[in-house]
TrEMBL record:
EC class: transferase
Swiss-Prot/TrEMBL cofactor(s): [4Fe-4S] cluster
HAMAP family: MTTase_RimO
Localization terms from the record: Cytoplasm
Protein's name in the database: Ribosomal protein uS12 methylthiotransferase RimO
Functional description taken from the UniProt entry: Catalyzes the methylthiolation of an aspartic acid residue of ribosomal protein uS12.
Species, as recorded: Candidatus Odoribacter faecigallinarum
Gene Ontology CC annotations of this record: cytosol; ribosome
Amino acid sequence: MKKANIISLGCSKNLVDTEMLLKQLERAGYATETDVEESDADVVIVNTCGFIGDAKEESVNTILEQVERKKAGLIGQLFVIGCLSQRYGKDLSREIPEVDGFFGKFDWQGVMERLGHRFDNSIAHQRILTTPGHYAYLKISEGCNRTCSYCAIPIMTGRHKSRDFDSLLAECRALVQGGVKEILVVAQDLTYYGIDLYGKNRLAELVGRIADIEGVEWVRLHYAYPAGFPLELLGVMRERHNICRYLDIALQHCSDHILQLMRRGVTKQQTIDLIRRIREKVPGICLRTTLMVGHPGETEEDFEELCDFVREMRFERLGVFPYSHEEDTYCDLHYADDVPEEVKQARAERIMEIQEEVSAEVAAATIGKTMRVLIDRQEGDCYVGRTEYDSPEVDPEVFVHAGKPLAVGEFYDVEITGADDYDLYGTTGHE
């Protein structure tokens, strides 16, 4: 049996693509594996990310590493798919001719045909999970209709395309039947779901229907957009006990000056009003957001305003990125990249210093409480899990000590006994 290895880079949406392609390869008779950098596979496929400079560099370096393994005869054919290949495929094929084929983000049929197999539409949305078996990502749409100044995603993924309502529910049922307990709903823009297919936003209805599937213990939402946020979603989140009190909503900035330059379609006051409305309608919700510093035109005054905003809003989870000047974006065509790199980095570090204090206070407030924790893995005699306020890979974890074995993929009531700046420590009470 031939072996196929997919090295998946970038976001969770890319990971879903990898999982679907793995299923096609399995159906074609391949033994499959993922993210084995020193694989001896007959076929290696690098699923690339092309979002920002660092991601593109990682993708290119990974391709070059596999080229060297191919030259040494350690692997067979080498293919490249994903966002970087979608955007720069022709350039890459000239620069790295050792790769057997560059395919666009959605050209899985081309990959299969190059391998001498047919793409099987009957299993188009079936997957081989690369996550632990108790959680899985559900990509409800692809692409984005927003015109943010800095973002290259629409260039690579095209306009927003919602997946059919019924097919998403069918996929959820299949995942649950396979043992999945947590559904992580993902998209470039959750808050546009359904408008293109049905003429209206159906996100709240979809999320409610997912939560109603027997066996779904947690539903988690990534990534919302502040402009045009469907407020009816908040009622559904409040009413369903198994929809996590968690929302990932990328705000990017708060200064009206920068929000306008970013073409975000929202003001600072509208943002504050939305945050307050969310917290009012869904008491106890954990808000995760992403901010950007160093966008063209960002002044010291803009940045200080952002620092004050972070202090005032007290986001439970926050990430920050220095601006990356990307080709063919609105910024590239209309603005100069006028904030020095060292200033961008210093601003990002300062935001995270402020957030570290907030996060430490949020974590400390949980000490003495009993929280429901989903166990993701075991490390030595310690178990590592998450609360409903934490998403895999990006958020804090709970380190649990127990007097008897715990089962990975199961929920336990954990008494929180300690905390650091981000992570929590606790016991199940079985000691």
